[in-house]
Amino acid sequence: MAAQQHHKTKLRNINRLRIIGGEWRGRRLSFPDVAGLRPTPDRVRETLFNWLAPMIEGARCLDLYTGSGALGLEALSRGAASVVMVDSDATVIAHLHQHIATLHANGAQTAHADTLRYLQHPPSEGFDIVFLDPPFRKNLVAPCCELLERGGWLKPGARIYIETESDLPLSGLPPNWHITRSKKAGQVSYHLAQRAAETQALR
Predict the structure, then answer these.
(1) pLDDT digits (tens, 9 = 90+) for 146-199
(2) CB atoms within 10 A of CB 138
(3) Helix, strand, coil shares of the chain as percentages rounded to 5?
(4) What pairs with residue 112 in β-bridges?
(5) Which structural domain range is residue 152 located in?
(6) Closest Cα partner for 193 from 152, 168, 151, 163?
(7) What is the DSSP string of 127-179?
(8) What phi, psi does 194 have (nearest 5°)?
(9) pLDDT confidence band for 85 (50 / 70 / 90)
(10) CATH assignment at residue 30
(11) Crossing angle, helix 70-77 and helix 90-103, to 10 degrees?
(12) How do residues 10-69 score in pLDDT, each as one tens digit?
């Protein structure tokens, strides 16, 4: 009984984030107190979606290590056609289901899975935009990028957002990707990469 009460208390220990643009601008959503979960800060999201403004409308998006769902839900709010949000934590997925229902976010899907394993199974269709914000200090960026590139996850010209700790050099990207934008904010570095068109990638 005590264990059940502790679990309920832990679930009530939640934080909030704010959607900062688009249809759901100003909406505040909760996210669970899960170890390592750190929503992308408002000012970073604002900069990111300014970068993505020319291509977000109607985009098919993939949000890896989605956590709070801040990036995927922000993308939908700003006109993305769909987003698949992937996370290995059951509490995170349960909260995302609540948000999807509250917002009537018909374009949202969730996948309760380990990201590296998830990426080993090719999709039926590639994505226009991928958000990659893995836990820090786990060396997950390079293997995720490799799987995205060789697994058919990306359309030609796809954009890939990558968020890392600020002291980590960004390396190991596929040779047909190039960084178009890059900034730092506090302890975070964030980058926007673009995949070359197929004809360029084959050169």
Answers:
(1) 999 999 999 999 999 999 988 877 888 999 999 999 999 888 899 999 999 864
(2) 10
(3) 30, 30, 40
(4) 87
(5) 2-201
(6) 163
(7) EEEEEE-PPTTS--HHHHHHHHHHTT-EEEEEEEEEEEETTS------TTEEE
(8) -125, 130
(9) very high
(10) 3.40.50.150
(11) 20
(12) 444 458 888 999 999 999 887 776 666 667 778 899 999 999 999 999 999 999 999 989
Amino acid at 22: G
CB atoms closer than 10 angstroms to residue 109: 14
How many independent structural domains does the chain possess? 1
Adjacency order of strands within the sheet including 154-165: 108-112, 82-87, 60-64, 127-132, 154-165, 188-195, 177-185
The CA–CA distances, whole Å, from 104 to 63, 73, 101, 148 equal 18, 11, 5, 29
